[in-house]
Amino acid sequence: MRVFFDQRQDAHAPARELHNGEWMPYSEKPSRTRSILDRLGSPAAVSDHGLAPVLAVHERAYVGFLQSAHARWLAAGRAGDAIGYTFPVVGRRPLPLDRIDAQLGAFSYDAGTPVAAGTWEGAYWSAQTALSALDAVAGGDRQAFALCRPPGHHAGRDYMGGYCYLNNAAIAARAARPLGYERVAILDVDYHHGNGTQDIFLDDGETFFCSIHADPATDYPFYWGHADETGTGDGDGATLNLPLPRGTAGETYLAVLDGAMEAIARHRPDLLVVSFGADTHASDPICAFDLDRDDFRAMAQRIAGAAVPVLIVMEGGYAIGDLGLNVSAFLSGFSA
Ligand code: OKP
Ligand code: ZN
């Protein structure tokens, strides 16, 4: 399977995040991709698809904010990474507020997602990586792996959050339509619920979104991913959330995945986009499932059983020492 990655993604390197009330080193580090590439070998080249496929998912004002936020932070006399401190939960509306602090709040839902000097460059090339891997599938590859970093599944049309800025999986899923894929399914198997992807496709009946994740009653992102969120309007029934308790191990997880694959098959997709997080592994430092590498391989075998082309998009995974082995165990299940 071809692996897509562009060195410019690593321009994104925030220094720290607010975690349980303390400043901690940022978990979503450039060394994550190095650990993976050490195992997978040289990546295929990424090509530039421009901004149009990004703007097919994200609001122009939000994209403009991401492009300029760090420069405007510096212009306001600040140092380091840009980060918000006030969030318009109640009465969010499109007020034309110029101040960088107001915009950092309006375009994000958490304080764990700083905008660093290279964030736009990294996020832009991460999205281009997903689009390039999509081209490989459209060109006949049965599967392709987009080594996206920063990840994307927490980012919505006009918001960032959870280490995510541009929603790589959503951008690829939307770009698939003009390539002739009419019915797309997105399966999100990151430990965390893919709230951004869910929001983007919530009222879209052609794009089925299914997520298996830690119960948001106990885990981030808390406010999305509950089983009663099933889609709205035309998308009613095209969202399926399968929350699982902390400590879930392989046997239970794989049985739930079987159910997810049956639901996906009922949608009759012609393309499956997998948001893959390796943070379901038992060794992940910020997560609490109990999967091992054999489970990762078994997951991929079940997904491959859908007999549709698969675009795999990297999301989370923070056990950096094990990350390359964990990701390659997952990918190996597609050829087994
Ligand atoms: C991103 B992905 C604050 C604690 C919350 C956010 C977790 C984001 C996970 N530092 N951390 O889904 O792996
Ligand atoms: Zn995650």
TrEMBL record:
SUPFAM superfamilies: Arginase/deacetylase
Annotated ranges, domain Histone deacetylase: 28-331
Cofactors, names only: Zn(2+)
UniProt feature coiled coil, ranges: none
Gene3D superfamilies attached to this UniProt entry: Histone deacetylase domain
InterPro entries from the UniProt entry: HDACs, His_deacetylse_dom, His_deacetylse_dom_sf, Ureohydrolase_dom_sf
Superkingdom, taxonomy of origin: Bacteria
Protein name: Histone deacetylase family protein
